[in-house]
Amino acid sequence: MNKLSALRLKDLKHNDKCKEFEKKIFNKYDKDLKVYWIPSQLRYSIWSIDRKGKAYMLCVCVGYVDTNSYREPNERDLQAIYSMDLQRKERTFSMSKKIQDYDDDMEAERKKKLRNDLRDISMDRWRSIMENPFVNIPMSF
Question: What is the DSSP string of the chain?
């Protein structure tokens, strides 16, 4: 774990009760979710440890009616974390789709320009071979 994560976690307690919540609720979904007790606020917090070892707090367990009340982590916290993950993935997919659409538009524009350039070059060559000017005459009846 790097220094920043160590500083973030130094005031937190990871006791047996926290490990019990991890096993019972959170490790089913993600083994990198950790539960810590924040003694100064008398609350549990849920953290995620990334591949580089950095810790990120995902949520703090507060009361549903009274935000100053203490409560233990439960399935609602897991559902909230799942929703956050889903929104993040959807945002990533949406951005990837926008990039792909932009790339497709640029490719179509490039092909159109290439077709026009080829047509112009072939017309110029035809003119030079035939030694006659090329004139477009509109046909209307």
Answer: --HHHHHHHTT-B--HHHHHHIIIIITTT-TTEEEEEETTTTEEEEEEE-TTS-EEEEEE-B-SS-TTSB----HHHHHHHHHHHHHHHHHHHHHHHHHHHHHHHHHHHHHHHHHHHHHHHHHHHHHHHHTS---------
Amino acid code (one letter) for 30:
D
Mind listing the pLDDT tens digit for each residue in 31-47? 888 888 888 788 888 88
CB 80 within 8 A of CB 59: yes
Is residue 33 within 8 A of residue 22, CB to CB? The reply is yes
**How far lies 100's CA from each of 41, 48, 75, in Å?**
46, 31, 37
Would you place residue 10 in the very low, low, confident or very high pLDDT band (cuts 50, 70, 90)?
low
pTM value? 0.55
